[in-house]
Predict the 3D structure of the following.
Amino acid sequence: MVSGRKITRLGLLIGALCMHAWAVAATDEYSVISAKEKVGSLLANVDGSTVDITYEVSNNGRGPKVREQLTLNDAGIPTQWTIKGKSLFGGAVDEQFTWQRGAAQWRAQDGKGSARMSQPKLYITNDGSPWSYGLYARMLLKAKDRTLDVAPSGSLRLEELQKTHVGDVPVTAYAITGANLSPEILLLAADGSLFAKLDSREVLVRKGFESKVEQLQTLERNLRVTRLKDMQQRLAHRFDTPLRIRNVRVYDPQAEQLSDVVSVVAYRNRISSVSVEPAGVKAPADEVVIDGNGGTLLAGLHDMHSHNSDESGLFYLAAGVTTVRDLGNDNALLLDLTQRIDRGELPGPRIVRAGLIEGRSSYSARIGRIPETLPEAIEIVRWYSDHGYRQMKIYNSFNPDWVAPVATEAHRLGMRVSGHVPAFMSPDRAIRDGYDEINHINQLVLGWLIGPQEDTRTTLRLTAMGERAATLDLNSEKVRNTIALMKERKTALDTTMVILERLLASRAGKVQAGDAPYLDHMPIGYQRYRKRSFVDFKNHAEDEAYLISVEKQLELMKMLYAEGIQMLPGTDDTTGFTVHRELELYQKAGIPAARVLRMATYDCEKYLGFEQSLGSIQAGKLADFILLPGDPTKDVSAVRQIRLVIKDGLLYFPSEIYEALGIKPFAAAAVLSGPTS
């Protein structure tokens, strides 16, 4: 079997006996695999104390392309590390860490800094390749308690998960925490070299073992599920007695205002009553009681554009999001994840599934299904319907001529149709051919900006939102015609404005307004990742145009709201924090906060067809709601301070979830009294 690591057996023995494994020369070659297809590669040349890395990925029309050079000391810790190239969406990368004579200096997209340190600390990169995690793991294995303070700040911890074999190669699975929001799972070979870095969507694996990716993803999934099952047992509070929340004001989405002070009682997963309590009345002895301290009780929030993973559930619940719509995923993973969440085995929101269908091209997304013929596409629609998917999502490379027949079949089966606007197709044609909804505000706007032969499968779908969108006349005939068509056909827009703001307004070294309220609570790697620019600006004028474009999209949202176009708040993200920012952007666009709350709760459930059971706090409805101390009808930013979340009768304290995830909490937990179980 080909190993991809060209090194002699004598060298392996020497490496195992020495304090570090850098006394010999070696070449590590890896493939990046997504949906069983190779989408990238990594080549690492190790020659004594120097390492030279080339890392390139091209997946869904984007991907990082960087060159790294490291110099290691006798302990194997980098004293110099340079990274140059392009990041995920083409932003320029020019990162450097240097330690010499007791002083360290670094610069990257998130800024620059320096510190005195008698010995070099392990440096956490901003734009490094996955190879770095093998290095981190080797250093952590030698550290006390397998924990190290790192530069620029924070600490990493290594946990051994499982010993196993991939083919005939013995490997050990480890989790590294402290760098990012979720643990990074990797496999080390017996000589300490990186064998694979595991993720549900992309796997980096040693060359020659590409056929083992399915086995590796199953391993990764099992390791994460085991961890999350344990967390669910610790964090989900179950009550077999009534739960009474006193002294709260309930948001009424019909009136778009708060009620007088009431008590809300839930029993198991249903709301029993919402009523004004007589003064001085004691709660029954068998009830669990929470004093809401005059706060607001609000139906659970929604993310109408998610791509769920096993670990996204905890982040959503902590952010008060109790229902999400998944708009494209690995189908086997999503079906299994939904079932596990529904029976309470794993933490997470309710998931409404949309099935992604894509076309074959060099830009294809590696999730969902890719038909080769129109009859196969029709069969895929039927498969999704038979498996309980409520919507079809069409993607960038799909054949425009297939949209109408696919939409007709989906509608026959009672499914909605949404999507990106396929390349070389206009939004107007997509709507006429059967789209009930357009995903992403930029997918709508691109129809007014580009020519018929321009390819939106590339990063043009982002870069065209710069100067072109900044000068767009929203009163032009082409804009008015599309909006009139949307009104006529009752076409909705899944905005994901937050992700567009993040891409267009990202600037190296700066914290965006949407990230400022929470970022300093996060692990260092995530903090650094958010202080970056995703695009490369040619000049100051282009820089300014991107910022003007953000304001233009907010102006468009206000215009769509005034025209009665249904907008669905979504994020294209999984952290929950971006749901809060999405709602803030709706208010910033000029939509009253009280209406934004309705759009984020009841209106979503009505759109999904579940308003009889969810979306408002009423007796008989399912118990999905959140408690927060402020008044979100005045300022939706109040939703950032959530004290408790109840989803399907299970109670979660965001403060407990965040502590378990290594994140500093944002609000104190509500206090329980009475019997508990």
